[in-house]
Design a protein that fits this description.
Elements (H helix, E strand, L loop, with lengths): L10 H20 L2 H4 L6 H12 L3 H17 L3 H10 L4 H20 L1 H10 L5 H16 L5 H14 L1
Length: 163
C-alpha cells in the first residue's frame, strides 16, 4: 500500500479487465479475414489468432483464447480498440468517423477544386481525376434532381481511402 492508501486495482477489477481482453481476442478470432487485415497486430498475436481459428476442440479453443488475452495484456492494444470501435456501428468512434466522411463528401461536392485540393493535402494517395469526375457527376445529379449515385460512389471512395 502506498501513502494515499491505494494499492492498485482490486483482484475483481483485474479479472474483469482480463475477461474483456479475452472477449476482444474472441472477436478477432471470429472476424472475417478481410476485416482482420485492417488491424495492425503484433506478429505473436496474429499467429495466435490464426492458430485459434484452426482449433476444433472447444476446450482447446477456450484455453487458447486465454492465451490470446494474455498476449493482449502485454501488447499495446490502443490501435486494436480504435479499429474495433470504428467497425462497431453503435460506437461513438464509428459515428464520428462516419460524420467526418460525410463532411468530406459534402465539402468535395460543394467546394469543387478547393475542397479537392484540401482533401488531397490530407490524403495524398487519392486520385485527383477520380475525385474531380465524381464531384462533377454529383453536381450534375443535384442539378437534374436525379438519385445521388455519384455522391454514394464518392462516399465509398473516400471511405476506402480512410480505412
Amino acid at each position: 500500500m502506498n501513502d494515499n492508501g491505494y494499492d492498485g486495482p482490486s483482484k475483481s477489477q483485474l479479472k474483469r479487465d482480463s475477461h474483456a481482453l479475452q472477449e476482444m481476442g474472441k472477436q478477432l478470432v471470429e472476424m472475417p479475414e478481410g476485416k482482420l487485415q485492417k488491424f495492425t497486430l503484433p506478429e505473436s498475436l496474429k499467429e495466435a489468432i490464426y492458430e485459434a481459428r484452426r482449433l476444433k476442440s472447444r476446450e482447446a479453443k477456450r484455453r487458447h483464447l486465454q492465451y490470446i488475452g494474455k498476449l493482449m495484456r502485454i501488447s499495446d492494444i490502443d490501435d486494436i480498440q480504435i479499429t474495433l470501435e470504428k467497425m462497431d456501428h453503435q460506437s461513438q468512434t464509428y459515428r464520428q468517423h462516419f460524420k467526418s466522411l460525410e463532411d468530406w463528401r459534402d465539402r468535395l461536392i460543394n467546394e469543387g477544386q478547393a475542397g479537392i485540393d484540401e482533401f488531397l493535402g490530407s490524403y495524398p494517395e487519392a486520385e485527383r481525376q477520380k475525385l474531380r469526375n465524381l464531384q462533377r457527376q454529383a453536381n450534375r445529379e443535384l442539378e437534374l434532381k436525379k438519385s445521388p449515385v455519384a455522391s454514394r460512389k464518392l462516399f465509398s471512395y473516400i471511405r476506402s481511402l480512410t480505412e
